Amino acid sequence: MTRSPPLRELPPSYTPPARTAAPQILAGSLKAPLWLRAYFQGLLFSLGCGIQRHCGKVLFLGLLAFGALALGLRVAIIETNLEQLWVEVGSRVSQELHYTKEKLGEEAAYTSQMLIQTARQEGENILTPEALGLHLQAALTASKVQVSLYGKSWDLNKICYKSGVPLIENGMIERMIEKLFPCVILTPLDCFWEGAKLQGGSAYLPGRPDIQWTNLDPEQLLEELGPFASLEGFRELLDKAQVGQAYVGRPCLHPDDLHCPPSAPNHHSRQAPNVAHELSGGCHGFSHKFMHWQEELLLGGMARGPQGQLLRAEALQSTFLLMSPRQLYEHFRGDYQTHDIGWSEEQAGTVLQAWQRRFVQLAQQALPENASQQIHAFSSTTLDDILHAFSEVSAARVVGGYLLMLAYACVTMLRWDCAQSQGAVGLAGVLLVALAVASGLGLCALLGITFNAATTQVLPFLALGIGVDDVFLLAHAFTEALPDTPLQERMGECLQRTGTSVVLTSINNMAAFLMAALVPIPALRAFSLQAAIVVGCTFVAVMLVFPAILSLDLRRRHCQRLDVLCCFSSPCSARVLQILPQELGDETVPVGIAHLTATVQAFTHCGASSQHVVTILPPQAHLVPPPSDPLGSEVFSPGGSTRDLLGQEEETRQKAACKSLPCARWNLAHFARYQFAPLLLQSHAKAIVLVLFGALLGLSLYGATLVQDGLALTDIVPRGTKEHAFLSAQLRYFSLYEVALVTQGGFDYAHSQRALFDLHQRFSSLKAVLPPPATQAPRTWLHYYRSWLQGIQAAFDQDWASGRITRHSYRNGSEDGALAYKLLIQTGDAQEPLDFSQLTTKKLVDREGLIPPELFYMGLTVWVSSDPLGLAASQANFYPPPPEWLHDKYDTTGENLRIPPAQPLEFAQFPFLLRGLQKTADFVEAIEGARAACAEAGQAGVHAYPSGSPFLFWEQYLGLRRCFLLAVCILLVCTFLVCALLLLNPWTAGLIVLVLAMMTVELFGIMGFLGIKLSAIPVVILVASVGIGVEFTVHVALGFLTTQGSRNLRAARALEHTFAPVTDGAISTLLGLLMLAGSHFDFIVRYFFAALTVLTLLGLLHGLVLLPVLLSILGPPPEVIQMYKESPEVLSPPAPQGGGLRPEEI
After folding, report:
1. Topologically, how does it sit relative to the membrane (predicted)?
2. Which H/E stretch holds residue 914?
3. How do beta strands 303-304 and 310-312 pair?
4. Number of neighbouring beta carbons within 10 Å of residue 609
5. Across the strands, what pairs with 601?
6. Quick check: 663 pLDDT over 60?
7. CA gap 643, 577 in Å, rounded
8. 994 band by pLDDT with thresholds 50, 70 and 90
9. In terms of Cα–Cα distance, which of 1056, 1035, 1037 is closest to 985?
10. Local structure of 475: helix, strand or coil
């Protein structure tokens, strides 16, 4: 072997051989970073070599561990409860909800089943007798639903919610009332006699036909029963509730009906009623005072005349209220009808669900297909069914997505040279990632993290796409192993080159999803934590188990076995030549025929003396014909594998045993070297790239202004379904929400009445609150309570003035007068509880409209026991509930004079209706107004908070954007720190973070153009985009950082080595996401498939187009400078740096 000539005599294109070249000594300023990376790469090298030596054991143990974790999927719990999914953890809403459940229990008082009727021809007036007749037909069909379960028949009258059933001492009347008491049905039919047809109760009295609401006149019935029973108290109850003649005194919608009662106003005239006039002001249930259904609850799309009179409407709505499962269980517990079936709350829930499903089914089929009207039906069970369907795993899509990925991985890694092909590696890599995803989800299940729709619908595909990226990277790097690398060190060398990138991308992905967990929505927090755990499991699989697979495949290749069919030898396998480095003089290669170039790979280690940190750059010598290289000798050859080296050797020496086809030599690395990099790195191309990406950024900033907040149920439910049609009609015509203003404990209700009235007034004045009719008092417990006290005070005053009540006797007075008598003598003093002198000196309500504090809780006990209809209508839900107390006017013992006071209240509520809430901005405005009213009341000592679905599900938007910006900023800072720590180059880390920030802004802007609204789900995707974007940028940046030469040359080299794995990774991610496009849920397609596809394309463009251009202009100086020397004492000066691609700068 000949000695290398002195450094000054070497030709510019010469690269010294690896075995005789001296180490490349680094400038002192970068010694520490490279020493740290050398140490880290040394660890990776040792890891790879160890795995290769024990590949079988590692593979067996890895598969065993991952398989065991995957078994955790058996205990996975899928959460579909909306409150558990969407209420912010630890927020004031969560605390308020906990307080409500602590006082009242888990369930609401009732559940709603709704029918909405609209004309098939949009905009048509629906206030006609014919349209109301069709509504009656559908409502009747729904109200007659019966289901048979547990050997019993369950109809509406058994399971419906009944408001304020009174307790009557007369047993016969009590049984009759129990059978007849009507269900609460809010319907426009209640304005007419036909509303009685929806009530299914009936009672029997001797000598009379069956008593039903269609023929019941309560006033006439009481007159007939008067001689046989004392019904004075019941009569007063009906009078106070203003029941009157109930339904028989209302006009008949169809006066020709044979059952239309004679007492109906239009019975004799036989004229159809004016529907618009009858519905003006709303309708009433059987009680005019306590059951008033406002227009907005019954009619949608209303139009009014100049004087405000109702002219037309486009939609009708009827609402059937059912008991909750607990109420139904308590109602029939111990009843003779259920004593033989082991009655339980679970059975009660099953009965309700079965009835609701049947209700929806029959209601939707009630009208013929050719009818002019259409019915949309919905129930709470329908919503639960939608959420369950939304959360189910689509086995077909999962299997299809993974088969597609298997096919792509296999085809991508197949080679014409069968012995050097890696199709089996591709198949095994995808299957390994699939197992890692399953094990990660199993670990989540074992940790108690509940699954949801995002977990089942999205995460399997997203994790597959992300995990396969690193599989492609390792496989590409393994095929490009240096030819002189010992066989037993191939895996160590591969991890040494690529392990840093894999570690960096995985850490950033996990960090991104962990930062997304800052979004305080339980569903998205669970999704983010699951994604982070799955990414972690995939990282372990790729770094530990996949190298074992590659090592086993290396043995197959060494034995010249076929790919996939490894039991057979290759019939035409290329000869593998070990091309050893050799010293070449300048006379070896004829000038003008070929240039000797070097593939630069960066490895760092500490010198034996531990005095210098050096970077070894083993050149990879081979011959490259100059006419085929657009960059001349400025870009190293892609020939890193033994296959490519052999091909070049055969071209030069004409020693090939079997030549491959010309098309077989084309690959993505070839394209990057010979077409893409030369074009991209031209000056005018750089300018065009910067202008185009600047325009995209500016357009995205404008698109960001178009993004609206919100997520409606119509976005989740599949379009074209009956459920979607109902929700669309409800959102358009009946955007009403029942809410409550809850007052807590911690203050004295008796002494805070004025503050409570003021709070109610402030809340009522909010723009979104539906005001009560001008002729009706506010529907709250405090108003009803005060009104009731004023009523019995008036009765007492009359009885006192007439002498029926005296200081010593109330027996001759009215029921109300006697009640007032008992309340007026109460002192609230345990020692002297009664003072008869107060009969003439005290009033139950003073001139200011306030109840005397000493009487407040005793009066509450009497009101709750004596006015069940008013209590039910107020929806007060007192806690602790006041004690039961029965009034007996004829009790002469005196014990009945003592009234037990109610305990101080810890929970009560004022009901309200919110209207006109169409957009998220409307909800936010209403929430802010309600919170401000509660805050102002808090200054007066009243502890209150609003409650209801708008506050549960929309309050997150008050701080969602702030939370989003905070998470993104924290993640960008973390990404910078992680990149700076592992790359040991803050300059490069800054460029990476700049590109990631641009991607996030551009994705946000494109969401605005796509009409994707900002909710917790897009926020998670936007936050995760930072971590996913690292997959596309860090490989290029690391390749640029660890090569030598000018910026243009280093950018080109980085592109050549990373273009193929990054592109394959992007395609694999897109294939993983492709299955989301087949989802039945438009929500999945728009919010996940579209957003993640745009993110992947943006990552590909920014990683392979923008970042190389930025690096070629603003990139950091090279970490390594090629210097040749004769001996350790002789060093050469650093190579010159500058722009342009000149051969001298290699």
Report:
1. Multi-pass membrane protein
2. strand 907-914
3. antiparallel
4. 7
5. none
6. no
7. 9
8. very high
9. 1037
10. helix
pLDDT of residue 351: 93
The secondary structure of residue 246, as a DSSP letter, is: G
> Is residue 39 pLDDT above 80, yes or no?
yes
* Cross-strand partners of 624: 595
Peptide bond into 262 cis (omega under 30): no
DSSP label of 763:
H
The residue among 463, 526, 445, 452 whose CA lies nearest residue 69 is 445
Question: Residue 338: how many CA atoms within 13 Å on its side-chain side?
Answer: 19
Q: How far apart are the first and last CA of the chain?
A: 25
Within 8 A by CB and 6+ apart from 666, the residues are none
640 pLDDT more than 60: no
Residues with Cβ within 8 Å of residue 499, at least 6 apart in sequence: 41, 44, 47, 48, 543
Per residue in 562-577, pLDDT (tens digit) is: 666 666 566 544 444 3
What are the angstrom distances between the C-alpha of 243 and each of 156, 223, 234, 236, 544?
A: 22, 15, 12, 11, 79
Residue 583: pLDDT over 70: no
Residue 952: pLDDT band (50, 70, 90) is: confident
Token reading at 354: 């079965």
CB 483 within 8 A of CB 642: yes
Q: What whole-number distance in Å separates Cα of residue 969 and Cα of residue 963? A: 10
Do 1077 and 634 touch, CB atoms closer than 8 A?
Answer: no
Q: What are the φ/ψ torsions at residue 781 (nearest 5 degrees)?
A: -65, -35
Phi, psi of 740 (to 5 degrees): -140, 145
The single residue listed with the structure tokens 């010159």 is 1136
Q: Is 828 within 8 Å of 901 (Cβ atoms)?
A: yes
Would you say residue 607 has pLDDT above 80?
Answer: no
Q: How confident is the model at residue 541 (pLDDT cuts 50, 70, 90)?
A: very high
Q: How far apart are CA 1012 and CA 1053, in angstroms?
A: 39
Give the integer Cα–Cα distance in Å for 1061 and 480.
12
Show the tokens assigned to 1076: 């989301």
User: Which of 210, 219, 226, 208 lies closest to 263 in space, CA to CA?
Assistant: 219
591's CB contacts (< 8 A; 6+ apart) are none
pLDDT at 166: 65
- Predicted pLDDT at 589: 36
746-751 long-range contacts, CB within 8 A, separation 24+? 746/943, 747/941, 747/942, 747/943, 748/853, 748/904, 749/856, 749/904, 749/905, 749/908, 750/851, 750/853, 750/854, 750/856, 750/857, 751/853
Pure H helices in 8-151: 31-53, 55-70, 82-86, 92-104, 129-143
Distance CA 919, CA 293 (A): 25
- Residue 739's nearest CA partner among 569, 620, 520, 915 is 915
Is the alpha carbon torsion for 805, 806, 811, 817 positive or negative? Answer: positive
Across the chain, how many H-helices and E-strands are there? 41, 19
So what's the pLDDT on residue 666?
62
Q: Give the confidence band of 626 by pLDDT, cuts at 50, 70, 90.
A: very low
Token digits of residue 1055: 């592109």
Structural tokens at position 952: 């549960």
**Facing residues of 738 across strands?**
913
The answer to which of 270-279, 462-471, 924-933, 984-993 has the lowest mean pLDDT is: 462-471
Give the pLDDT of residue 775. Answer: 64
Residue type, 71: L
Residues 904, 735 contacting (CB under 8 angstroms): no
Residues paired with residue 911 on neighbouring β-strands, in sequence order: 740
As a three-state string, the secondary structure of 375-432 is: EEEEEHHHHHHHHHHHHCCCHHHHHHHHHHHHHHHHHHHCCCCHHHCCHHHHHHHHHH
Rounded CA-CA distance 531/1025 in Å is: 13
